[in-house]
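The protein record minuted underneath.
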Amino acid sequence: MTKVRAASSHQRGVLWMFERAGKKNIRNGAFQLWQQHNHPVELSTNEIIDQRLDYVHNNPVEAGFVYKPEDWVWSSARQYAGEIGELDISYV
Protein backbone atom coordinates (compact mmCIF):
# COMPACT_ATOMS: atom_id res chain seq x y z
CA MET A 1 0.00 0.00 0.00
CA THR A 2 1.36 3.44 -0.96
CA LYS A 3 1.15 6.19 1.60
CA VAL A 4 -0.04 9.54 0.30
CA ARG A 5 1.23 12.57 2.14
CA ALA A 6 -1.20 15.43 2.69
CA ALA A 7 -0.34 18.58 0.77
CA SER A 8 1.17 21.39 2.82
CA SER A 9 -0.41 24.82 2.88
CA HIS A 10 2.42 26.03 0.62
CA GLN A 11 1.72 23.27 -1.91
CA ARG A 12 -1.99 24.06 -1.86
CA GLY A 13 -1.19 27.74 -2.39
CA VAL A 14 1.04 27.02 -5.38
CA LEU A 15 -1.57 24.70 -6.93
CA TRP A 16 -4.21 27.39 -6.38
CA MET A 17 -2.06 29.94 -8.29
CA PHE A 18 -1.51 27.51 -11.18
CA GLU A 19 -5.23 26.71 -11.30
CA ARG A 20 -6.20 30.40 -11.19
CA ALA A 21 -3.80 31.15 -14.06
CA GLY A 22 -5.18 28.17 -15.99
CA LYS A 23 -8.73 29.47 -15.80
CA LYS A 24 -7.73 32.81 -17.35
CA ASN A 25 -6.72 31.21 -20.65
CA ILE A 26 -9.10 29.08 -22.72
CA ARG A 27 -6.15 27.20 -24.28
CA ASN A 28 -5.40 25.53 -20.93
CA GLY A 29 -6.82 22.45 -19.32
CA ALA A 30 -6.96 22.95 -15.59
CA PHE A 31 -3.60 24.56 -14.77
CA GLN A 32 -1.00 26.88 -16.26
CA LEU A 33 2.62 26.65 -15.16
CA TRP A 34 4.45 28.73 -17.80
CA GLN A 35 3.61 32.20 -19.04
CA GLN A 36 2.28 32.07 -22.59
CA HIS A 37 3.73 35.29 -23.86
CA ASN A 38 7.20 36.43 -24.73
CA HIS A 39 8.98 39.69 -25.18
CA PRO A 40 11.65 39.17 -27.81
CA VAL A 41 14.72 41.36 -27.58
CA GLU A 42 17.00 41.89 -30.54
CA LEU A 43 20.56 40.99 -29.58
CA SER A 44 21.99 43.86 -31.57
CA THR A 45 24.95 44.91 -29.40
CA ASN A 46 27.53 43.20 -27.22
CA GLU A 47 26.12 45.10 -24.24
CA ILE A 48 22.64 43.60 -24.76
CA ILE A 49 24.11 40.12 -25.32
CA ASP A 50 26.12 40.37 -22.10
CA GLN A 51 23.08 41.66 -20.21
CA ARG A 52 20.90 38.75 -21.35
CA LEU A 53 23.65 36.21 -20.73
CA ASP A 54 24.11 37.52 -17.17
CA TYR A 55 20.35 37.30 -16.65
CA VAL A 56 20.24 33.64 -17.77
CA HIS A 57 23.34 32.74 -15.76
CA ASN A 58 21.93 34.33 -12.61
CA ASN A 59 18.50 32.63 -12.75
CA PRO A 60 19.59 29.62 -10.63
CA VAL A 61 21.14 32.02 -8.09
CA GLU A 62 17.99 34.14 -7.90
CA ALA A 63 15.93 30.97 -7.45
CA GLY A 64 18.14 29.97 -4.53
CA PHE A 65 19.43 26.76 -6.13
CA VAL A 66 23.12 27.77 -6.02
CA TYR A 67 25.28 30.53 -4.56
CA LYS A 68 27.21 31.34 -7.74
CA PRO A 69 26.14 31.02 -11.41
CA GLU A 70 29.03 28.68 -12.18
CA ASP A 71 27.81 26.25 -9.49
CA TRP A 72 24.78 25.34 -11.67
CA VAL A 73 25.85 22.18 -13.50
CA TRP A 74 23.82 22.80 -16.67
CA SER A 75 24.87 26.41 -17.17
CA SER A 76 27.36 27.86 -19.61
CA ALA A 77 28.41 30.11 -16.72
CA ARG A 78 30.84 27.34 -15.77
CA GLN A 79 32.75 27.72 -19.04
CA TYR A 80 32.61 31.52 -18.88
CA ALA A 81 34.20 31.22 -15.39
CA GLY A 82 36.98 29.05 -16.87
CA GLU A 83 35.69 25.74 -15.52
CA ILE A 84 34.80 22.54 -17.35
CA GLY A 85 31.06 22.17 -17.77
CA GLU A 86 28.50 19.68 -19.02
CA LEU A 87 27.52 21.71 -22.08
CA ASP A 88 29.30 22.39 -25.34
CA ILE A 89 29.08 26.11 -26.00
CA SER A 90 30.07 28.62 -28.64
CA TYR A 91 31.29 31.86 -27.14
CA VAL A 92 29.60 35.03 -28.31
Notes: The mean pLDDT is 82. Residues 60 and 66 are 6 Å apart (CA to CA). The longest helix spans residues 46-62.
